[in-house]
Design goal:
mainly beta, six-stranded antiparallel beta sheet, five-stranded antiparallel beta sheet, about 55% strand
Length: about 500
């Protein structure tokens, strides 16, 4: 019998990817392209810690950069939070406020630049979670709140909030060309707009500056969300997007359908990101430029389809789209919030320019708010069931809990499925502690690594026809790079 001959082959990963790919066959993935990757990012080719969350800290004044941690909420949680900037006559300056809606259905507020770390009750209770908007009334910067079950509430921070009983109850609101546009909660097909001269006037008028209504009867589902984008107001519905356009007369509007879908749109995820609107649909993430809709090529979209994203929420922060959602990893891992009940379990960070993304797993986020005032630039995060307010960071840590990180390759077969191979050794730069598991169809080997400044060499001597590598770490200083796999393949 002729002696088998083997050829030495080397595989390199000099540029790790954190972009998990569940859409392709396991055998079709490039070596650097992970089948699974969560709680990790890439930096200069290395695999490093992903996003984390810490308790929110805010400055103690507008002139001092020192920050104090916000106090834990007493007996309540926030489900929604808004930003309110206004000119305070009393203080002769602009002030900056956070307003939260509590699980007790009351509104609370705090000054962003103030030594007080508490939220204070506005002494206003609402029947259901409201939507909110900043606008101007008679020269004052105000914030308004409404829900399907509550009258329009307007607050100028130097004065007492007041109710506008003549305004409609609404489920969504936007400001467009000096008018407020709302979806009337009392009608499935009606958008109303305020008078141009006074956003508190809602009585329909023939005056070209007056209030009016727009009927939408194209049966694309219930009206859910309004966005002002460019020269138009866009209406997001369960199965379509409509555009509201004005004639030469500023009080005459008409609606036209610009997108129809056979898959459900998660309307509340629609988010303006510079020159595009992004939104989730049942089969993935989409982008919309005002005319055309295009699906974004995220290689984990199938994991979105497997769960209803009714609690998904989005925001645009520092040039990135952040999507809180629920993904099914189809594994036995339990990360962070997954040890109990949860509505969402992931935060996806997507860069519209580079198309790169990473996934933070184990966080149950119900709302996010970008904050960029004076010298403060943060993404505020609310977690379901948490009485703390949180802020995004890049530590890979949830307060004091290190989120487990995982990177798993696709199937490695070299030049052929059928040839016999021997994985001789693995080399990599490991500036952290981690576990590496390498499997073939015959058996597996595991290695525990510790931090080293030098290249680590792992002797494997593992035979098989196909291989898979997984790396897990609970180190808060993850840093892996320069991975090399050395094989002998039967020729």
């Amino acid at each position: 019998m002729a002696k088998k001959s083997y050829t030495k082959k080397r595989l390199f990963i000099d540029n790790f990817s954190a972009m998990q790919n569940r859409d392709n066959n396991d055998y079709d993935l490039e070596l650097s392209e992970p089948k699974t990757c969560f709680n990790a990012k890439t930096n200069l080719g290395a695999l490093v810690c992903g996003n984390g969350l810490s308790h929110l800290k805010l400055p103690i004044s507008q002139s001092v950069n020192y920050e104090a941690e916000m106090s834990q909420l007493s007996g309540i949680t926030f489900t929604k939070i808004w930003h309110y900037k206004y000119y305070s006559v009393a203080n002769s300056r602009y002030d900056y406020i956070l307003v939260g809606f509590g699980s007790d259905k009351n509104l609370y507020f705090t000054n962003i630049f103030f030594a007080d770390t508490l939220f204070h009750s506005l002494s206003i209770s609402m029947n259901s979670e409201p939507v909110a908007i900043n606008f101007i009334v008679t020269g004052d910067d105000v914030i308004g709140f409404s829900s399907p079950n509550d009258n329009f509430l307007v607050w100028y921070c130097d004065e007492t909030p007041y109710s506008v009983s003549t305004a409609p109850k609404f489920v969504s609101i936007c400001l467009h060309k000096q008018r407020l546009f709302v979806i009337d909660s009392g009608s499935d097909n009606l958008v109303r707009f305020s008078a141009k001269t006074d956003p508190m006037l809602w009585t329909t008028s023939n005056d070209e500056e007056g209030a009016g209504t727009i009927e939408m009867n194209d049966y694309k589902g219930q009206l859910k969300n309004l966005l002002s984008f460019g020269d138009y107001v866009f209406v997001f519905r369960d199965y379509g997007i409509s555009k509201i356009t004005s004639y030469s007369s500023s009080s005459v509007y008409y609606a036209s359908n610009v997108y129809s879908s056979s898959r459900k749109i998660y309307c509340t995820t629609a988010c303006v990101c510079e020159d595009k609107i992004y939104f989730l649909q049942e089969d993935g993430l989409y982008k919309f430029d005002g005319s055309n809709v295009e699906k974004v090529d995220l290689k984990f979209s199938k994991m979105l389809e497997e769960n209803a994203q009714n609690n998904a929420n989005t925001c645009f922060y520092n040039g990135k789209l952040f999507v809180a959602c629920k993904l099914d990893f189809d594994d036995d891992d339990t990360i962070g919030c997954e040890s109990g009940e949860y509505k969402n379990n992931c935060l996806v960070e997507f860069n519209p320019e580079s198309k790169e993304y990473n996934i933070t797993r184990g966080v149950d986020i119900c709302s996010m708010l970008p904050l960029n005032d004076l010298f403060v630039n943060k993404l505020i995060v609310l977690q379901n069931g948490s009485s703390f307010l949180w802020q995004l960071n890049t530590t890979g840590v949830l307060h004091e809990t290190v989120l487990e990180k995982k990177w798993e390759s696709g199937k490695i077969t070299l030049s052929s499925f059928s040839t016999n191979k021997i994985l001789r050794e693995v080399r990599l730069k490991c500036s952290c502690s981690c576990e590496i598991k390498i499997e073939s169809e015959k058996r597996s080997k595991s290695f525990s690594l510790v931090e080293s400044e030098n290249i680590t060499r792992l002797v494997c001597s593992l035979s098989g026809k196909e291989f898979l590598m997984s790396i897990t770490s609970s180190d808060s200083n993850l840093c892996l790079s320069n991975l090399e796999m050395i094989f002998s393949e039967e020729s």
